[in-house]
Amino acid sequence: MALRFIGIDPDSDTGQCPTVWVDEDTADVVVQGWNADEALLAQCLETGSIPPTEGVVRIPARMAALLREACDEAERRSAGL
Predict the structure, then answer these.
(1) What's the predicted TM-score (pTM) here?
(2) Domain ranges in the chain?
(3) What parts of the chain have a pLDDT lower than 50?
């Protein structure tokens, strides 16, 4: 698996914060975010269960442009461009 770094939370000064990558082999978008707190997790569980192999993370709205860039890159890779 080769990850293409897209970006990190622009308001971070610690380097340990939400980050976005694209898997160059599968075109999957990979994110690092803040773990969901109990209230957010409870709201998400109202929609359905969350398997033990999955998790809920929060990505700040200020990263929307980075997420769009990651999605665009994923789309290009999955189309073979």
Answers:
(1) 0.81
(2) 3-78
(3) none
